[in-house]
């Protein structure tokens, strides 16, 4: 396919995606007027909106890759750096909060209010306005745009931006020096972060000790790291035929809380759910892993002493403790939902899957492996920018703490090696998000 034909195809796809997005928004507006009875329509319209948005961004990325030239690449790169610097400057002088939420303000008055030179403020505003952040509706006046207004109503967006500017970027720029000095070291004290801050203190210790840094890191993971929210995972899991299982037992292995089980229980109240908490596996990618142990301590103590304990808020959910590598005590479940720790080694996962061979062979149940923290197979997503965000996150983990994420292809290869004399584990389905990312694998035992 020549480039012009390819460009025309992406143009058609973009136009179709835009029409779908407009239709979904109109449908949502109509549902809002119908009242609570239209909740199902709202969910459907939101799903269509999310899918259309993903398709629009994928088409734009493809078009840019076709028509872009080296100068465009470098100019965009330079622009993004300056925009980041401007946003950091605006945050430093608390400019966001000094602009009225729904009206304009003379730039000179704003400069006097925050104590910065008007000439600098004008230049900053006019650059950020080119990407939709702030507006100059009248020459010499500034107002919030829909984008910048969200940074007032959601402080965590500012926290994420400050983390990128103050820590992630300087750390990333030390990657060449870290490689020269430490090579392939896996030590948390021999990272680009340690060089950038000239410290021997590991990053994970710093975020435990400094509440502001911990808050910024959590915000970064929430908004900039491309991690899927639990609501998305629940939506994908809900596509399975849970209602056909009746009051079957479902075991969630390696959970950090009962949140996912509670959501499934609300949608499918006949299910009996066992949540096996694992507080021995922690990763920087767990946004709140610093205080999860404290939150769950009492329930884990109770379950450790008595074997298991019902959830105080839901009698159909039993909470117990189960560390990765321990034999599975529940051997008759219909489904085992497995959380793969973000930084697990291939050998650790292989050993865990080997332990489930006999369980799945005997029970005939299936296994759901959640894969939200795994890197997508190269080049398989419709929007390459989705993969880019995931790989940027992986590199950030390397630069900050010498941690890494597993590739999806590696996990699939490991699964193929798990078997015994009578059969093996096989992947039967890939559960994908609206942007094409595999969020879970369904696996069963298949006899030879």
From TrEMBL:
Domain of life: Eukaryota
InterPro entries: SAM-dependent_MTases_sf, WH-like_DNA-bd_sf, WH_DNA-bd_sf
Species assigned in the record: Pseudogymnoascus verrucosus
Name of this chain's protein: O-methyltransferase domain-containing protein
Gene3D superfamilies hit by this protein: Vaccinia Virus protein VP39, Winged helix-like DNA-binding domain superfamily/Winged helix DNA-binding domain
Classification via SUPFAM superfamilies: Winged helix' DNA-binding domain
